[in-house]
Write a structure and sequence with these properties.
This protein is about 30% helix and about 35% strand. The chain is an alpha+beta fold and about 150 residues long. The chain has one domain (about 1-150): Aminopeptidase, CATH 3.40.630. GO terms for molecular function: acyltransferase activity, transferring groups other than amino-acyl groups.
Length: about 150
């Protein structure tokens, strides 16, 4: 799924084409973070067991950040888009953050992307734009938008 999302233009930390083994290394690292309790992750599976979408929540471990977390690596496989999976995954992560007592969430995404529009629709607030933040597969760079969202108490 990671390779399919990157090939489809998702800016989630990788460039297309991905070198052999890079996706496997990424998922291995995520699994270690989940096992250590540093990352919470949810996935949506297709009827055949294939992953259709995933999202991560990274609670801040520093004492002065115990009230916040970062949303990371929201991905929906290109063949599964248009079914509301991204919205469902975002709501799941936000609900989990709230249950953990996290009152502030942050994330970033490429300016003008489908994800940018999604976060705005879901009530996220733009904090600012960082120019030339992410390299593009075809060369050059693009800006990222940093967003934040306050969560009401449980």
């Amino acid at each position: 799924m990671l390779e399919a999302c990157v090939a489809d233009g998702a800016s989630i930390g990788f460039l297309h084409p991905m070198p052999a083994g890079q996706a496997e290394t990424f998922w291995r690292d995520v699994a270690q973070g989940v096992a250590a309790g540093d990352i919470l992750m949810w996935s949506v599976l297709e009827a055949d067991g294939a992953v259709a979408g995933t999202i991560q929540l990274h609670p801040v471990g520093k004492p002065n950040g115990a009230h916040r977390a970062e949303i990371a690596k929201l991905m929906v496989h290109p063949r599964a888009r248009g079914r509301g999976l991204a919205v469902a995954l975002m709501r799941t992560a936000e609900d989990a953050a709230r249950a953990l007592g996290r009152r502030l969430l942050v994330l970033d995404t490429i300016e003008g992307s489908v994800a940018d529009r999604l976060y705005r629709r879901l009530g996220w607030t733009e904090a600012g734009v960082i120019p030339d933040f992410a390299l593009k597969s075809g060369g050059g760079s693009e800006p990222t938008v940093v967003f934040w969202k306050r969560l009401p108490a449980v």
